[in-house]
Structure formats: C-alpha cells, structure tokens
From TrEMBL:
Family that this chain belongs to: Belongs to the glycosyltransferase 87 family.
Record-given protein name: DUF2029 domain-containing protein
Residue ranges crossing the lipid bilayer per the database entry: 59-79, 166-186, 198-228, 234-262, 269-292, 330-349, 356-376, 396-418, 430-450
One of the record's GO molecular function terms: hexosyltransferase activity
Biased composition (Polar residues): 1-13, 491-500
Topological relation to the membrane, as annotated: Multi-pass membrane protein
Disordered: region residues: 1-31, 459-512
Pfam families: GT87
InterPro entries: GT87, UCP010361
GO CC term (a single one): plasma membrane
C-alpha cells in the first residue's frame, strides 16, 4: 500500500499523521473541514477557513474571534429585553411575558431588599416586599454577586430607574462572565479552539443570559474544567468549589472525577481536586453559616420544600393526572441515583475511558431532566458542556431549537395564565408539548454522547484530531487500572483526514 496525494488546496496540511505517530497538534481542527453544517454556513462569510485561519496568523485569533461573537450575541440578547426595560417590567403582569423579555433581576432588586439596603442572609425580609420569603433563597456567592451589583447601582432618580440600572449593572457583570466562559471553552481543548463558537453562537445563551445569575457559576465551572485540562487538579477543585457556592450543580463534577480517576488510577489528582473544592466552598460559606445560620440555610430548605414547578417532567405528570405529586422529591432522587449509577457504569465499562466533558454533560443533563423545576436559564449550564462533549453543529442546533421553543413557550403559557378571562397565550396542553420538546431535545443529545462513549470512532473529538481526552488533564492517554469490562490499552491515535465537506479535497490512499 502506498499513499499518494490527490489534488488539494494549498492551505491543507502536508499530510495526515501516519499510523503510530503522535497526534499532530501543530494546527487546530477546523470545523469547516470536518462538519458539513459549518462548511455550508461558512459560504455566507466567504467559504471555509484558509491559510490564515489555519495557522492563527493576524489579529483575529480564535480567542478574539469567539469572544467578539459571544459579546455580540450577548448584546443582541440585551436588546431583546428592551421592551421590558422600557416599560413591560412595570406596566402589568403579562406584558413582560407577551414580549418574552422577563428577568428576575429587576424584580428581586425590590423583592429581596436590595432597594431598601437590606443585607442578604442577615436581614429578615418584610412580607410587604418578599411575598413571604424570609431570606434570600440563593447560594452565598450568588448573593454576594447580587449585593455587589446593588452597591454599584447609583444615580437613579426613582425606584423604577434604580431597577433599570440594577439590571444594566448586572448585565455588564454577566457579560464579563460570558467572556470568561468562552475564553475557557476556547482553551480547554487546545487543538479545537473553534468548537467554542458553538457556545458563542448559541441562541439560548443570548435569550437567557440576563434572566438570572447562573452565568456566574457557569463561568467558574468552565474555568475549573480548563484548569483540570491543564493538569492542575487543586486549582480546578478550588474553582469547582466556588462554582458550587454560587449554584449547586457543579458539585456533580467531583463524582465524575472520582469514577474517572478510579479507572485511571489517578487518586492523587482526585483528592487534590476534592480537597480544593471543599476548602473553597467552606471559606465562602462558613462565615455566613456561623453568623446568619437561618439566612444561609434558606437556599437548601427552599430547594427541598419547593413544590413541582415550571418546565419539569413532574409538572406534565401532575397536570395530566391531577396528582399533586407530594413525593416528587423522592421520585427525583431515585431517578437521579439510578442515572448516576448508569453514568458510573458507562465510565467503567466503556471500551475506552469516556472523556471528562462527555460525562459532565450527561450528569448535568440528568440533574436537569429529573429536577422538580426547569427555569429557562438552566440551559446555560449545558451549553459549554455540550460544545465540549459533542462539537457537531447539526446535533447542537437541533437541541438549541428545542430550547428556544421552550423559551418562547413558557412565557406564552404565563401570559395565558395571567391574562384572566382573555386567555391570550399558550394553553396548558400546548405548554406540556414544549416541555416535552425540551426534554426530548436534551435526551437526543444525551443519546448521541452515550453513543460516542460506547463507540469512540463516532466521537468527533477523537475522530477528527486523534486526541484521547484533551480536556482530561492527568487522565489524557492514561492507561486503565480498573475497569468493569475488558481492559484495553489506550491506543495511539492518528488525526483523521478532513471529511468531504463542500469543496474539501482529501488525501487519498492508492492500493497496489
């Protein structure tokens, strides 16, 4: 067998890596060579990437390009909220839903005492502003973020202007979180920087970024995963602990690292990460826990006592059956435990150790699918994980389409329930359909990730650039020490030739 080049574009690399070679990391993977959707979309801006994009020359490096696009999309999301900023947050109950521009931020400025100068967790909230919520129901680091924004909200001539300014201040701070998020997404997979464009262009990110404060935890989680990919487990653990102090879901990543490090025998890395996470979480939480125990505990008691709410599978069952599902907590915990056991089995039984990002997406998606509530901004938790777990535009856009449908559906449903006898909006049956669309879209992406883990030749990351686990840090190319299936050595991979996307000409193989 001899290899002979066919005609090729001058911007192509000289040859693919031969079998047995180390993966070629001298140039980044270009989605326009490997992804049909990216190749087709590139025609809008002049065609697929050429020599300058290949070698990263010029001012527009991948980091700068992705950050610019992400901030542009964030700005478009802010513009989408303008009808509410002008009037709809203040003019009536349903206007903010009809315009699909609702945000918790201006309402909680008054409803959680920031407008009155009350200190989160320490000052009891009066019923006249809080509707019966005694203390702020958010984790400590998110509460600190909200308080800092309140301190920066100055210069308003009325309470209404203060609410508007508070949303603007928070939006600027969340824009910084977005920049951090996409920079981390670019750098986590060193040889695949353009995969972060999935995050930057995600329509659900633009639509939901300023609904709540979730981007703070999302950005810190992304930073933790970046540090783990650089084999800095202690620093990664510190960031994961801080993210958990802002939102609960990042703690799930420690369970994944336990299983992956078990399979690879990297116990030292796991204990450093877990120790760093515990230490940073305690440093943030213990002062408030000791000085204001009732206020600190409110987030946890509220999460436990909260009834079945919007967007969940449990709400569909409740509405269809008329059963109030008082034991929804129990059902959700059982499903979560069973799902985590399944993910652990996948991690230990798959023919090759699944990538960290793959399992991270699966466990966070499981948490979302089994939770009692699904707020529209929860999609932010999954967007960067999806981009790292399965960087394929077709599958990503299918899922995002389902999420955008849910985003519109929940506001139209709230408009319907709040419009009295007029009943303008989406009725209950229609809302159940958009919930199912969200659930099925997420399940679809989960199934694609599971398939990639069980059949690594379908994994875009491993197939396109010959990586093992570029986000795995100490796990990358580590041999298996413990498995529940047949133990196989981590193979030496070769980078694949570009797939036939549009006018890409590949190297061929001539058989004698």
């Amino acid at each position: 067998m001899t290899s002979a080049p066919t005609a090729r574009n001058s911007s192509e690399p000289s040859r693919p890596a031969a079998e047995g070679d180390s993966p070629d990391t001298s140039f980044p993977v270009r989605p326009t060579d490997q992804d049909e959707v990216a190749a087709a979309a590139s025609e809008v801006v002049g065609g697929r990437a050429g020599r300058r994009a290949l070698h990263g020359s010029g001012w527009w490096t991948p980091v700068r390009a992705v950050v610019a696009v992400a901030l542009g999309m964030f700005a478009l999301g802010m513009l989408q909220k303008v009808p509410c900023l002008d009037d709809a947050w203040f003019s009536g109950q349903t206007a903010q839903y009809v315009h699909a521009c609702y945000s918790d931020i201006p309402h909680l400025y008054t409803g959680r005492g920031f407008a009155d100068g009350l200190l989160p967790y320490f000052d009891h909230l009066p019923d006249r502003i809080s509707g019966g919520m005694e203390y702020l129901e958010y984790p400590v680091l998110t509460g600190a973020f909200m308080q800092i924004a309140a301190m920066l909200t100055i210069g308003g001539d009325s309470l209404r202007q203060d609410q508007q300014l508070y949303w603007v201040v928070n939006s600027v701070m969340l824009m910084v979180c977005t920049a951090v998020l996409v920079v981390c997404a670019v750098r986590t997979h060193r040889n695949r920087p353009w995969d972060a464009m999935l995050v930057a262009l995600a329509p659900a990110l633009a639509l939901t970024a300023t609904i709540n404060w979730d981007l703070l935890a999302v950005a810190m989680t992304a930073a933790g995963m970046l540090l783990w990919s650089r084999s800095r487990p202690l620093a990664a653990g510190v960031l994961i602990g801080l993210a958990t102090a802002a939102k609960l879901y990042p703690v799930l990543l420690l369970g994944l690292l336990l299983v992956l490090c078990w399979r690879a025998g990297r116990w030292g890395a796991f204990f450093r990460a877990a120790g760093g996470a515990a230490l940073s979480w305690l440093v943030v939480n213990v002062p408030v826990m000791v000085l204001a125990p009732d206020g600190w505990a409110k987030f946890y008691t509220f999460s436990q006592e909260r009834p079945v709410d919007f967007g969940s599978l449990w709400l569909v069952i409740q509405q269809r059956t008329g059963n109030p599902l008082g034991d929804a907590n129990v059902y959700a915990i059982i499903l979560m435990v069973l799902g985590c056991a399944g993910i652990a089995a996948l991690a230990l039984c798959a023919p090759r150790r699944p990538r960290f990002a793959q399992l991270a997406f699966l466990v966070v998606a499981l948490f979302i699918l089994t939770n009692k509530v699904y707020s529209p901004q929860y999609v932010l938790w999954l967007i960067p994980l999806a981009a790292l777990a399965r960087p394929k535009w077709r599958d990503f856009l299918i899922w995002q389409g389902c999420e955008v449908l849910y985003f519109v559906g929940i506001w139209m449903y709230l408009a319907y329930t709040g419009s009295g006898d007029k009943r303008q909006g989406l009725p209950e049956d229609g809302y159940q359909l958009v919930i199912l669309a969200h659930l099925l879209g997420t399940l679809f992406l989960c199934l694609m990730v599971v398939r990639d883990a069980l059949r690594p030749e379908h994994d875009p990351v491993r197939r396109d650039d010959g990586s093992d686990d570029p986000g795995g840090g100490v796990l990358d190319e580590a041999p298996d020490v413990f498995t529940l299936g047949a133990r196989t050595a981590t193979p030496k991979l070769q980078r694949s030739t570009p797939q036939p996307a549009r006018n890409v000409v590949r190297w061929g193989t001539a058989r004698e």
